[in-house]
Amino acid sequence: MAGGASVGLGDGHALDARVRFLTEYARRLHNAGVSSQRLEGAIRATARALRLECEAWSTPTGLLLSLTDTDALLGSQQTRVLRLEPGHVDLGALAALDRIGEEVLAGRLDIDGAWAAMRALDRPMTRARRLRTIAAFGVASMAVAGLLGTSWLDLAVACVLGLCIGWISVRSGEHPDLDAANEAVSALVATTLATLFGHFVAPIAVQTVVVSALIVLMPGLMLTTAMTELATQQLSSGSARAAGALTVLLKLTFGSIAATQVLSAIGWTVPTPAPSTLPVAVEWVAAVLAAASFATLFQAARRDVPLVMASALAGYVITRVTGAWFADGSAVFAGGVFFASLAMAALANLYGRWSGRPGSLVRLPGIMLLVPGSVGFRALGMVMARDYTMGLETLIAVLSALLALTAGLLFGALLVPPRRHL
User: Fold this and answer.
1) In this model, does residue 240 exceed pLDDT 90?
2) Structural domain of residue 349, as residue ranges?
3) Domain boundary residue among 276, 292, 308?
4) Burial 93-111 (b: 16+ CB within 10 A, else e)
5) Residue 291 binned pLDDT confidence (cut-offs 50, 70, 90)
6) Interior CA angle at 136 toward 200 and 59, to 5°?
7) In this structure, are 329 and 180 located in the same domain?
8) Does residue 2 form part of some domain?
9) What kind and span of H or E run contains 81?
10) Is the model's pLDDT at 197 over the cut of 80?
11) CA–CA gap between residue 255 and residue 246 (Å, rounded)
């Protein structure tokens, strides 16, 4: 390849070097939260640039790569099997990896240089980064409470609870046992603290506050990714990811229901708060704060923070505007969600073609305020509380939103084809 590679591409050592690089590249894309169909497409494209034939199989918890040297007539096949933890969205790492892959595809970067560039992406979890993450949890919780139209007191309580949940989440990353029970513990803590505050201090809308505090843990994006994978025939990955999202919802619901029942048995209940309305401007301030928190939680690079925030706000505005068109129509069709996801998918691909960078920088933030994670949480809570009628109706609303969101993403990609797979 161009760039003065120190490793020749014709001998066995070069094959090993190429295989090691491609394996590491795939692992990092997986850890950055790339969905299966996009990851497999990106890996196959990079493999062709390295003169390798690659069969890739990606699941939320692993990668299987089968690689053959196209330069050798009877080249041996190498197989790599990686057991991985489910990836989390990291837009900063994704943008950097896309740039590295683009350089390799264009022949401007050799294997040694690409490997060094990937190693430079490793960043330890510093104290400042932990604090930013915890603060983003609090801001996101307060912002969602504002979007739900609650009271000033509810906003303040949601913010404090969000900070507590953020601290638990950061700590869980350092303790495997806590990580496995993170969602259940967080829901238990949030519900307990919200109920105690409402009982002993002042009445609050407990359910709204709890949903707002747990919003970052809601698997709405995971459910959307699973539906998209199933729609693109990634049946194994989509099924596994959907099962993982359902498990997260069940853990959240169990923690919340368990805390509610225990506190109710003790007699610590919360009286219904007086009706309260917030100024209209609060909704838009909350949307801006939510967008800012997404930029931090998605670990966007500093240069991409304005883009991520603008994308999140655009998705929300389009949903509000187009949703009003269908307000008097059938409740089965989530028209606002469909048109917003279609528009954001098309805009993401336009941005990718224009800038030569990943469309995910626009697409993922653009749908974050559309995903139905909190509604699914409410639905399961109603079912576990034996309110089957309302629970079923809410579950149908979740399914409707998921179908509209997935269809919008697929139609958006059909309207404007992506630059590359990322």
Assistant:
1) yes
2) 298-422
3) 292
4) bbbbbbebbbbbbeeebbb
5) very high
6) 115
7) no
8) no
9) strand 77-83
10) yes
11) 14
